Amino acid sequence: MSGGRGRRAVALVVVVTVGAAACGGGDDSSEGSGSGSGSGSQTAANRQIKGPGCEFIVAGEESRVIPPKDDMQFLMAAEASATECYDKITFFFDQGDGPDLPPGYTVEYREDPFGLEGIPTSTGGFKDARAVIYVEIPRASATDGRQTGRVVETYKGNLRLQLKGMEHTVIVEYLSKIVDPTPFENPDDAKIVWLIGLDEKRPFTVDTVNQPPRVSVLVMK
Q1: Angle value at C-alpha 213, between 75 and 142, nearest 5 degrees
Q2: Among 97, 99, 156, 174, which residue's Cβ finds the most Cβ atoms within 10 Å?
């Protein structure tokens, strides 16, 4: 009798262990289905699954490009936040005179000087930034001059974002010196540029939403 009870106890332990392993995979999906021209998928070799749903996010190292909208948009704020699956860097915009739609963008890996010859950057000389994601928002500005004789500075945040709990992001820098002081007169030349420095090259994707219009770069953990 005692031997039979022992065998039943072993069988119960095996069932519980298998059940726990099945739950670990998870079915929950996560935010971050990226938009853009790049659609490179992640593989087990270039990503680490940090939580349920992370494995379903499509990310890669290819450039991601969406053409600009017709109307000027204005940078209002930027923030960096850590999530279970990725480092998230988000840029918020005022829609200007256009519809409530996210702006176009180019997001891609670049090497110093990032196609910005003559423009000094902190990121270029930051030794911990071993890979840099270049973020360009065309037809966008941090100054609004639509009212005659009045120019309003729309972005009043830091040139370098505060980073807390980030996995791979070591610097996020706004290049204010390339902003056209009169972008409303030359909208085709106006652009906002940020640099995201990482400790290593990581797969990324881009997510855009409205209310307010914003662009998020998701750097996978």
Answers
A1: 10
A2: 174
Measured between its terminal Cα atoms, the distance across the chain in Å is 52
CA distances from residue 164 to 87, 91, 168, 170, 196 in whole angstroms, order as listed: 10, 17, 11, 10, 14
- C-beta neighbour count of 126 within 10 angstroms: 16
- The Cα angle at residue 111 between residues 118 and 156, in degrees rounded to 5: 60
Q: What is the pLDDT of residues 1-36, one digit of tens each?
A: 444 444 444 433 333 333 333 333 333 333 333 333
Neighbour-count burial of 117, counting CB atoms closer than 10 A to its CB (0-12 exposed, 13-18 middle, 19+ buried): exposed
Phi, psi of 14 (to 5 degrees): -65, -45
pLDDT tens-digit map of 53-105: 898 999 999 999 999 989 999 999 999 999 999 999 999 999 998 999 999 99
- Residue extents of the structural domains in the chain: 2-220
Segment holding 21, helix H or strand E: helix 2-25
> pTM for the complete prediction?
0.76
Say if CB 79 and CB 161 are below 8 A apart: yes
